[in-house]
Amino acid sequence: xxxxxxxxxxxxxxxxxxxxxxxxxxxxxxxxxxxxxxxxxxxxxxxxxxxxxxxxxxxxxxxxxxxxxxxxxxxxxxxxxxxxxxxxxxxxxxxxxxxxxxxxxxxxxxxxxxxxxxxxxxxxxxxxxxxxxxxxxxxxxxxxxxxxxxxxx
Length: 153
Hints:
The protein is mostly helical. The protein is 80% helix and 0% strand.
């Protein structure tokens, strides 16, 4: 996976922000939120682009695991090799871990803002960085599509 400028900038800002005072947080919180949103958007866009290059079999398997495309995807899922299903399952698990980490960071930032608590804000910074690392890991996993022979074809 190539490094995304938005994510690298956000990681740098979060690392810097872990040293800020309450006063600095008050004046910079919108910048932190915007930078985090930009990083999340860049990762989401890149992830979508990677999966757009998947074969139709991989897309169908992933959509059926996500509960999208209803009965047709679920019916087609039964025709997909176990190796393909296993690969897609691992990608989905990585995506879910990244999403959960992102929600945890956002909740921590919300609570830090409500309480005006710099300790919580610092924790939110660490959680945000962790969520981006998990998202990058999930994208790398999605990029590492096994060869046709690995997928049981």
